């Protein structure tokens, strides 16, 4: 009898019926996550609408500068308040307030050409520019004139309630100082800044708010084309922007400005 070939193996294919989840995959998870995110955003908006002005400014400041380490430019500053940073708009308002107070001074008309208030990347800078013969300080020394004392005391009255740190700077022109005994424009610029500091503190500015006293001599001339211009002799008060996490107050420099290795000439 002839040998019959072996029958071919039977292959059974079972198809697994896909469930509801297999048909849609994970798309529902993405849609659910979007829904939850939208609801969270809605709740935050509703919470902000019911919050006070200080909270709204704090939240807005965080989104403008989430690291809290802005470059101190006005565009990265949040609203005014404890632990926040004064914005450029706030500094502009302070500038207007100071200028209004200055106009109330009896001798303002004689001084207005020698006062400059500007909002800078560092903060609000108030500069008292000297003229030939002295306007705010007696010529050749650190004693304030009657006009200078009145103006600086008025600044102290306006700034004493502001929590910002203050920097006080003294500058001279490039004329050699005529006195002997080693007293140069380094000492003079620092002494004038210190005199301004004392007047500010006598007017109510807390000593802890004075961050630094700087004496620059003739190293930062206002008019570089004319180093002997009297306007190069000036005292500046800088109202700094506040950082969200303010560093400990820098020690006051009660001495003179740091002198580089190659000392410049002195002036008065």
Structural category is: alpha+beta
> What is the correct CATH architecture of the largest domain?
2-Layer Sandwich
Q: Mean pLDDT score, rounded?
A: 78
Compute the number of helices: 7
Task: Pick out the low-confidence regions.
Answer: 69-84, 245-267
Largest sheet: 5 strands, mixed
- CATH class descriptor name of the largest domain: Alpha Beta
Please indicate the count of domains. 2
Number of β-strand runs: 5
The CATH topology of the largest domain corresponds to: 60s Ribosomal Protein L30, Chain: A
Q: What name goes with the CATH superfamily of the largest domain? A: OmpA-like domain
Key features of this structure:
single chain, 268 residues, alpha+beta, 60s Ribosomal Protein L30, Chain: A, 2 domains, five-stranded mixed β-sheet, 5 strands, disordered C terminus
């Amino acid at each position: 009898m002839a040998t019959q070939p072996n029958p071919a193996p039977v292959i059974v294919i079972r198809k697994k019926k896909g469930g509801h989840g297999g048909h849609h995959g994970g798309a529902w998870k993405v849609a659910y996550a979007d829904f939850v995110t939208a609801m969270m955003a809605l709740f935050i908006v509703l919470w902000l609408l019911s919050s006070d002005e200080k909270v709204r400014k704090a939240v807005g400041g965080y989104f403008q500068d989430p690291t809290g380490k802005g470059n101190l430019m006005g565009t990265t500053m949040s609203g005014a308040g404890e632990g926040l940073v004064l914005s450029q708009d706030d500094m502009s308002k302070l500038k207007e307030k100071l200028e209004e107070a200055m106009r109330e001074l009896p001798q303002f008309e004689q001084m207005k050409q020698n006062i400059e208030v500007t909002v800078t990347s560092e903060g609000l800078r108030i500069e008292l520019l000297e003229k030939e013969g002295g306007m705010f300080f007696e010529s050749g020394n650190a004693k304030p004139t009657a006009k200078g004392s009145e103006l600086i005391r008025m600044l102290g009255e306006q700034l004493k309630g502001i929590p910002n740190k203050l920097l006080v700077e003294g500058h001279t022109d490039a004329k050699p100082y005529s006195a002997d005994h080693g007293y140069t424009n380094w000492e003079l610029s620092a002494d004038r800044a210190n005199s301004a500091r004392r007047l500010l503190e006598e007017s109510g500015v807390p000593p802890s708010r004075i961050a630094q006293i700087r004496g620059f001599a003739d190293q930062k001339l206002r008019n570089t084309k004319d180093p002997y211009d009297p306007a190069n002799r000036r005292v500046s008060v800088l109202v700094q922007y506040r950082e969200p996490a303010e560093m400990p107050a820098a020690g006051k420099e009660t001495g003179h400005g740091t002198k580089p290795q190659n000392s410049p000439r002195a002036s008065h």
